[in-house]
Amino acid sequence: MEAEGQRKKEAIPLLTPYRMGKFHLSHRMVLAPMSRLRSYNFTAQPHAVLYYSQRTTRGGFLIGEASGISDTAQGYPNTPGIWRKEHVEAWKPVVDAVHEKGGIFFCQLWHAGRASKYEYQPNGHPPISCTDKPITSEAQIDGTTAADYSPPRRLSVQEIFQVVDDFRVAARNAREAGFDGVEIHAANGYLVDQFLKDGVNDRRDEYGGSLENRCRFPLQVVEAIADEIGADRVGVRLSPFADYNDCGDSNPPALGIYMAQELSKRGILYCHMIEPRMITQFERVETKSSHGPMREAFKGTFIAAGGYNREDGNEAIANGNADLIAFGRLFLANPDLPKRFELDIPLNRYDRSTFYTSDPIVGYTGYPFLDQTP
Ligand SMILES: Cc1cc2nc3c(=O)[nH]c(=O)nc-3n(C[C@H](O)[C@H](O)[C@H](O)COP(=O)(O)O)c2cc1C
Question: Which CDD domains is this protein grouped with (predicted)?
C-alpha cells in the first residue's frame, strides 16, 4: 500500500488530474484528432469502435478525427461525415464504446474548403472557399501535390451564412450521436483557416481584409455552435504559424492572439493550439516563436499539440505552458500511451505508410498493447 501511495505522489505532470470545465479528467494526455481514412462511404465504421476504445482510459479526453459537416466538406477518401442521419447512427456505437470505458469524447467538425477536388464534391462541382485562388505550393499535408486539388469557387455572403448553419447542425448532430462536445477545426489550411489567413483570403467584403474581417466567419461558426450546444462544450483548434495546404499568414502572432482573445470572450471550453515548431505537419523545427501570448490571452483550457513526447510534454505541463497535451502519432501507434508514459517504457514505432490506408486492422487497431508485446 505504501509503495502504491508513494508512486501516486510521484505521478508525472502529464498524469495528474485536471478539471476542464464540467469534465473531470484523470490525466492530461489527449488523443489528437487524426483522420484515418477508414470510414468507407463517408460513414464511421464498426472498426472505429475498437480503435477509439483501445485508446480510451477512464477520465481520458479523446478528440475524434475530422468529420465533414456537409456534402461539400470532404477532401479525402473515406473520411467520416456528421451531416446525415446515417452518419449520426454510425457514430453512436463508437461514442458508446468510449463512454463505457469512462472516456470523454469530442467530435472534430471539419470543412476542407479548397483542399478538395471535383471528385469529392456534389455533381463534380468546384470545391468552395473564401477565394477562387487554387492551392499552388507543392508540398501538401499528406504528400499530395498542388496539381491534385481542383480550383475553388468563391463563396457569396449568402452562402457563407449557409456554411455557418451547416456547422451548427453538425454540432447538434454530434451531440445527438452522444459526443460530449465538438472541436471546430480551424487549423491546417482547411476552410475556416482559409478565411483566417491573409495568404489565402483575398475578399474585399466584410469577410476579408482586416484581421477582424478575416476572423468574422470563424467566430460566427463558434457563436452559432455555442448557441446550439453551449460554449462549455466547444473547443477550437488553431494553427496560426503553419502554412499547410498553402495557407499561411503574414503575422501569425497577431492572428493567434486576436483569436485567443475573441474565443475567450465567448467563453468557449478550450483553445487547442498547434505548436509554431510544426512548420510542416510532421516536421519539428527550431523556432523562436511561441504560443505563450496566446496561452496568456485565453482564459479557458489550453491544449498544445505538435511533436510532443514524454519529456517535453511533462515540461510544458509543469511550466504552465499548457493545461493539456494532445498526442497524435505516438497515440496512433500506442493505444496504451498513458500507461507506457507512467511506466516510462519503450514505445511502438508508428508506420507512416499505413496512416492513410484503408485496412481496418493494419496500422489501425493492430498496434500492440504492452502485454501483447513479445
Ligand atoms: C494520420 C494523421 C491524421 C491527422 N488528421 C488530423 C485531423 O483529422 N484533424 C486535425 O486537426 N489534425 C490532424 N492531424 C494532425 C495531428 O492532430 C497532430 O497535430 C500532428 O500529428 C502533430 O502532433 P504529433 O507530433 O503528436 O503527431 C493528423 C495527423 C496524423 C498523423
Answer: OYE_like_FMN
